[in-house]
Design brief:
heterodimer, A: mainly alpha, three-stranded antiparallel sheet, elongated, B: mainly alpha, Helix Hairpins, disordered C terminus, Cation_antiport_E (chain A), Multicomponent K+:H+ antiporter subunit E (chain A), transmembrane helix (chain A), cell membrane (chain A)
């Protein structure tokens, strides 16, 4: 019963929090509307998202978030430095193929998003069987080492978050 | 206003402005669409983020109520930037087919690598019109 009424409990909680932050005041009316949205939106959209992703919101998820935020800041300095100092013909751009062991769509989406936000890489496509990501790197000296770094830094951590 | 807050706001605004400027400069000077994508996905996220943090410090420090909207803008930006970059990249793959060179300025022609397993990249599958020329 609860499962049918709340197909995505985490999404419901997130919607309530985001709505309250958007309204930017604590009141009964706003909270009521937030709860209505928190129940109705997951129900209406559950057809498009039938399976409940298995996510563990714990220490691993928090550690992953902090690492990503740190890397986003570092990435900005790196990219700014490359844009300002490197001549175009000296850019060592290349395509990276990152084979991934992650299977759930949500986990692969998070990995692709992380790759796009972090140092010098933009994820461009996924292989038709969903087992490898196509990534464009702006400037890497050693493509194999970069692939290994991404797998070790993000993928192994994501595997602990998404079972 | 508290001088510490004022200095922090000034530093954040200047830093944010510089990052946005550098990101836009990268958009103008990098050699190809794929390399240009790197500017807006990264340099501007931190630039806008820094401006928003400055705004989050400014309002409480000047005695006005605190607002959570800046935090939401940052989160939405971090969620949407990779997705729009991915959509642009996919559209580019559709138009150019397998021959996209990662950096046309370096004089080394390189095409797309093949995926290790599966038939092809998802963008090309099922589309007979994926132009390989």
């Amino acid at each position: 019963m609860i499962r049918r009424l709340l197909p995505h409990p985490a999404l419901s909680v997130l919607l309530v929090i985001v709505w309250m932050l958007l309204v930017n005041e604590l009141g009964f009316g706003a909270l009521f509307l937030a709860l209505v949205f928190g129940v109705v939106v997951p129900l209406v959209t559950s057809r498009f998202w039938p399976e409940r992703p298995k996510v563990r919101f714990g220490r691993d998820a928090l550690a992953y978030l902090l690492i990503v935020i740190f890397d986003v800041i570092v990435a900005n300095f790196e990219i700014a430095w490359i844009i300002l100092t490197r001549r175009n013909r000296d850019l060592r751009s290349c395509w990276l193929v990152i084979p991934t062991e992650l299977r759930s769509a949500e986990a692969i989406t998070v990995l692709a998003g992380t790759i796009s936000l972090t140092p010098g890489t933009v994820s461009s496509d996924i292989s038709s069987d969903g087992r490898a990501l196509l990534v464009h790197a702006l400037d890497v000296a050693d493509p194999a080492a970069e692939v290994a770094r991404i797998k070790q830094r993000y993928e192994t951590r994501l595997m602990k978050v998404f079972r | 206003m508290n001088p510490v807050a004022e200095i922090a706001i000034a530093i954040l605004l200047v830093m944010g402005g510089i990052f946005i400027l550098v990101g836009s400069w990268g958009l103008a000077r990098l050699p190809s669409l794929m390399t240009r994508l790197h500017g807006p996905t990264k340099a501007s996220t931190l630039g806008v983020g820094a401006c928003l943090i400055a705004s989050m410090i400014y309002f409480p420090a000047s005695g006005q109520p605190w607002s959570a909207h800046e935090m939401l803008i940052t989160i939405f930006l971090l969620l949407t930037a990779p997705i729009s970059a991915n959509m642009i990249a996919k559209a580019h793959l559709h138009r150019q087919g397998h021959s996209i060179d990662p950096n046309p300025a370096d004089g080394i022609p390189e095409g797309l690598p093949a995926p290790p397993t599966g038939d092809d990249w998802a963008t090309f599958r099922g589309a007979e019109s994926s132009r390989d020329d």
